[in-house]
Design brief:
heterodimer, A: Coagulation Factor XIII, Chain A, domain 1, 6-stranded mixed β-sheet, B: Rna Polymerase Sigma Factor, Chain: A, Arc Repressor Mutant, subunit A, globular
């Protein structure tokens, strides 16, 4: 249902996040699609917002909790009520008490199991659920190598390398971008060892990788430059060949929409002596 | 970039795995924005439980995203009303829990975002969140909540007066 076109925009005249979600996820609404598509063609901030959503969502993997099928099936069978309005808190409590009091002990036990499971931000999970590739970043400080995760601190001069475990053959490209928004290639590299900060090649072509039985170290190493701040490292893995053009972030978002696997890790570059 | 993924609505049987795969990122993103990482996954699972509870009605919804958005917002706000969790969140993020969509940061918006939302009734807090944080128009808030524009406009008037009073501007 679409009351009017104006409902799709925020008070600044840009597409609402909800509108973009409806555009992406809901069953087709021709009128909405026509308006959104036309607006996207002329609104750069809205296109950027859509790309950012696609990229962010590509890194999220929310799976049903363990045994959820049992829990939810029992809950759905035990709870009747088809109103779409979110129930009031007290109503919710009464309803839950009703079905819990109805003897659905198994449901309660399993619900507690998943309700108390600690949340792990997606970017701390190196292995994407269901992904055909595991992707790890290692940083070498001159003496030893350490794996890094999003939020970890790195230092100028340290070298960054990549390890992958390819479960299904495909094509991989990795690029980075710094706080200034400048993108640079990480893999493949022409000389195999470059400082970060070099502009991304006009057409960085993904490299074909065959299935591997064990993790493989990619033949590249990046050396962090002296510019402090966050470094965002993005790996893109697709079944088919692809190239990252002059706008790798937008391309990564588009590829993610098309079913490619995209992972971004954000590292914080601090002066030597700061952090681990 | 304006590509459109080929996705369909929820399957007739509301397959749990399909539901999570199709809408999981949307729900988790919304929950994280409201309550932070620590509680977001729990909220998201609760949202999907609601969707399954409301099976037929959810299946008949023309915009599943809007339904999930509304329920996630509702559950997120409820979670924030828990004093202990709210204290944790405020400690981590300061007095303003969310960023306003209002670039002008009017005093009334700051008042709402800072403390006022905690004292309002559930409906008004939700309207304020959709208005000040998400930047929605009256019409869109009405569509999301399933009530008339006129009702939303009246409620927003009450909210604005309360916010102005809280901001020290008087009614």
């Amino acid at each position: 249902m679409m009351a009017s076109d104006s409902d799709l925009f925020d008070r600044s005249g840009h597409l609402l996040e909800l509108t973009l979600d409806r555009y992406r996820f809901d069953p087709p609404e021709p009128a909405l699609h026509a308006v959104v598509t036309a607006h996207l063609a002329t609104c750069e901030p809205c296109r950027a917002a859509l790309d950012a959503l696609v990229l962010a969502d590509a890194q999220v993997s929310l799976a049903p909790p363990a045994r959820s099928a049992v829990v939810i099936a029992l809950a759905a069978a035990a709870v009747k009520g088809d109103t779409l309005a979110p129930p009031k808190s007290s109503a919710t409590r009464r309803k839950k008490q009703a079905w819990l009091g109805g003897g659905v002990v198994l449901a309660l036990a399993a619900l507690v199991l998943f309700a108390t499971r600690p949340w792990q931000p997606a970017d701390e999970v190196i292995t994407l659920k269901g992904s055909p590739i595991d992707f790890e970043i290692h940083v070498h400080d001159g003496e030893r190598s350490r794996p890094v995760l999003s939020g970890d601190v790195v230092h100028p001069g340290e070298r960054m390398g990549f390890r992958v475990h390819v479960r299904e053959a495909g094509y991989l490209a990795i690029f980075g971008r710094d706080d200034r928004g400048a993108s640079y290639p990480c893999y493949p590299l022409a000389d195999g060892d470059s400082p970060s900060g070099a502009p991304v090649a006009a057409n960085l072509e993904a490299v074909a990788l065959a299935r591997t039985e064990a993790p493989l170290t990619l033949p590249v190493a990046m050396r962090f430059d002296d510019i402090l701040g966050d470094e965002h490292i993005t790996a893109v893995f697709c079944e088919a060949p692809f190239a990252l053009g002059a706008e790798p972030i937008a391309m990564a978002a588009e590829l993610a929409q098309g079913g490619c696997h995209v992972r971004e890790v954000t590292l914080h570059k601090a002066p030597a002596g700061a952090g681990p | 970039m304006s590509g459109k993924p080929a996705v369909a609505g929820p399957s007739p049987g509301l397959d749990v795995a399909v539901l999570y795969r199709q809408f999981g990122a949307l729900v988790l993103r919304r929950a994280r924005r409201l309550v932070g990482d620590a509680d977001a996954e729990e909220i998201a699972h609760e949202v999907f439980l609601r969707a399954l509870e409301h099976g037929d009605a959810f299946r008949g919804e023309s915009s599943p995203s809007s339904w999930l958005y509304r329920v996630t917002t509702h559950l997120g706000l409820n979670r924030l009303r828990d004093a202990r969790r709210r204290a944790d969140l405020l400690e981590r993020n300061g007095a303003t829990v969310w960023d306003a969509n209002d670039s002008g940061q009017r005093p009334e918006a700051r008042a709402f975002l800072g403390q006022l939302w905690q004292t309002l009734d559930e409906e008004l807090a939700m309207i304020g969140l959709l208005h000040y944080v998400d930047g929605m128009t009256t019409a869109e808030i009405g569509r999301v909540l399933g009530v008339s524009d006129r009702t939303i406009a009246n409620r927003l008037r009450v909210l604005t007066e309360a916010a102005r009073t809280a901001a020290g501007e008087g009614p």
